[in-house]
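This is your field. Pick holes in the following sequence-structure pair:
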Amino acid sequence: MSHGFAAVTDLTLTYLVDSYYNPADELGVAWDDPDLGADWAVSDPVVSARDRGEPAAPRRIPDYLRPRHGLRA
């Protein structure tokens, strides 16, 4: 699963999490990956340096890095 958002006004976003931040446990894909086909509906996006550095195409993520957890309810 992946998530993302596009804001057309200033906002504050708060995430509720169940564990401390662990950068080794992060995985991402390029926000503009054509394989995903996300329509962000913005013409001149401001994208963080971190998000600009994510790899394109989820299929290029090495198998050993892919999530293995099931859904949590």
